Amino acid sequence: MSQVLRVPPGPGCAIESATSHVEILVCDAAGAARALEAEEVGFGHARRLAPLLAAALERAGTAARDLAWVAADLGPGSFTGVRVGLATAEALALAAGATRVGASSLAGLAHGAGARRALLVPLVPAGRRDLYAGFFRADPRGRVTLLAAPRVGDPAALLAAVAEARGVVEGAAVRFVGPGVARERARLEEAHPGSTTPEWRLGGLSARDLAAAALGRLPGGAVCGPAAGLPVPGESLRPLYVRSAQAEERVRRGVFAELPIRLRGFVRDDIPAVAAIERRVFADPWSEGFFRSELQQPMVYARIAEQEGRIAGYLVAWLGAGAGHLGNLAVIPEARRRGVARALVADLLARARALGATAVTLEVRVSNFAAQALYRAHGFRLAGLRSRYYRETGEDALIMEWRAPAAAPDPAWQSPGIGRAAMHPES
Length: 427
Description:
alpha+beta, Nucleotidyltransferase, domain 5, Aminopeptidase, seven-stranded mixed β-sheet
């Protein structure tokens, strides 16, 4: 099911500030460009953004109070640029009573490139030799959909990620677009000849791309939402940083390192509480009856994670015949990023190794970036794709797989959560 974005009629403004190349676009009520201000601001986003915005509005003959929508780049890119742009857009929208919309720099590049039958990899500079990379696929009609979570790393690491993604979209040509291409063009062409032509936005991000993506004016129809790699219409906008600030990570690890996690078996008495969490977390929750039925299956491996005296998360998987499948993993919103999911996945893989299983698979939404990062940290890699698997959003499901050398079963195995008081979060 496609999600279509609707904004009130009237003039609007797009604020592209995710990199040092800043653009402000003002459009009339019909969507036609009235004024465009562009400038290389370096690190001067806080100083230059407001004057550029004022100049664009003046040139367009549009009063700020008349704006019907304001678009902002959600990142990734410069942390400062993204934050200043979002704050400016929020203040402007609040003052004008306008609708605030947004798109990531990667989605704007992918949807604007006009590619067909391609694995689209937009690249944005991330400092030093690193690049932010997005992963999208373009069908024969030019309709672009999200393929996998964005990554950040040096060119060698990202080329390895491209090779992994290419295995999921067989037969698609690789196409690199965006301002991150210029610096690494020779290396990209060596790995994938012809992948950097025709050029698209090598000189910088575009406010026109941002406006088109944020408003859902995309090739192949006005499809929005997570299937297209765009925000869910009507939900609060969140910046896409891809990697956390180092200071933030140090503080978070210090705070939550003192909160122990206890793992134990998932029993029938847990079902009502787990089903209530299921309804909070998922749009398509498992029922109490389904949980009750699965707990009776001989190959089920079901675990509960407790933190601060309450259920913080749970996992349901099936292990047997040398392989396994992770069917359900959930963490309550207030306990996320405390190591609960990491503890559950580590416990599952320890059990799989003890039973001699050599592979564990799972399905995950293409837009669930946090889950993909979690599984990747534990050795899962892309293995396949199920088109439009999630009916309520029309999203694809990524199949991810963990593989390990065969090992002899260990009858003395016990869970890390048994026999000692607690497991501490890894992050």
